């Protein structure tokens, strides 16, 4: 999301005196893309630890955990505990600049969105009956739980009927009632012979599964046109030589028929596999977009995937790892709800499933693969939840209660990070295992694994991602001392100005001495969001410091002040301020709110 600054102005001050950048070689200021060094092989592993009553606990320390990559112990180099809804530093509430000694209103912060929940309905894979049951449960759940500080959004994998974040219950109800199943694979593969599922097609084409292939070949031979030509009866008075020749001809004809049937099976499996992969890639693309949208929401972020699940081929597994990494780094918790509810697998399928004419052997084999397919489809829902600290609800028809469970963010989530040593860029799967030194009957939920990258990440892209994540977070950080003051000035019924003054202390900065000067660069980002968490505008400024010793000594007490002005319309706003220095890579992040009426 680009950072725009057309409606803003920035003023740089030192000790309260404005500094004109081009006339002061010790301090210069200009716009530029921010670049920070990043560890491209850092693997993040969210962990939720629950007690016997299912309550998440947050009293553990780094020393309580052990982390293994492919069975090898790893040094935990990053450790943090995220507490849901925790604001370490109170948000700065804007004062009315036109009123002297104005006191900020506590109600201003109360009306600002603090929590964002996106309901992503997989209308491509869900059957209509399951989707109706899930949307009705979600409607009742939202009617009872949506509060003044929560915003909800309705998204679909088909991209139809999306509703961005809002607190309008009527709009959410209307969006839910318009949802409908939009299958592509089932509609395209319902009349072919043999009858193959996406899972069986994957087994046949990608895994050369002889059992699956032979079951499909038998179905073709016994049922699919053109049917096998019946073998002529052996002539009663034929000689032994003639009988042998007839048997050889029959065997040859049977081999040719089987070879022809195998070609039919492969030809039928290819488009089903292509359609299935397309639907899964579509689901992943929408998940990425949903995470990106949530990452731009300044608050607690939860994504609820409502789906029956979908099959992942081996080629798509690295994309699953990428989804997990994106969510973890954006502090998005993915929870999933299986829209099928409580179901019983019927041998050969339900009444809507065409009867297999391959006989009981084919029916048994297909039933086996149907069970495997169901487990594989559910697996992705559970894996996404485990990897990001969310919850997985399944095997129950009480979907309203399920929404109540998955919509709750765990009170505590531990983030373990390690830098995999000598990581090969081979795309191989790495099994992760997290243990507690003393489990004491605690239940542990964590990421199960990741795929190694096949190439190094682009440092510039990593830097852009890191900066954007800092701006669109709500985390309050004071590695660099920053005092923030926000005022607003109304210039009419439809126009106002928000002024953000940040005083940055320099004592904690790590300067690099070059040619007698103390050098460091400050990246200062200011962003403005509306009451629903939508990004409005923002600025980024690089302040280059090349200070003489005497100047630095004066600044130790006064600090550096940066003023940012935003031209806005009256309304509720969240102001986000992020400061980062290049030498020490220390971070400061503050929040402000403005209620302009």
User: How many DSSP helices?
Assistant: 12
The CATH superfamily name of one domain is: C2 domain
Radius of gyration based on Cα positions: 31 Å
Number of strands: 28
Mean pLDDT: 82
The level-1 CATH class of one domain: Mainly Beta
The protein's oligomeric status is: single chain
Low-confidence stretches: 1-24, 31-40, 227-231
Q: Provide the β-strand percentage band.
A: 25-35%
CATH-defined topology of one domain = Immunoglobulin-like
**Secondary structure: helix percent:** 25-40%
**Structural class of the helices, strands and pairings?**
alpha+beta
State the CATH architecture of one domain. Answer: Sandwich
Distance between the termini: 28 Å
Form type: elongated
Sheet having the most strands = 8 strands, mixed
Describe the structure concisely for a colleague.
The chain is an alpha+beta fold.
Which labels suit this protein?
597 residues; alpha+beta; Immunoglobulin-like; 6-stranded mixed sheet
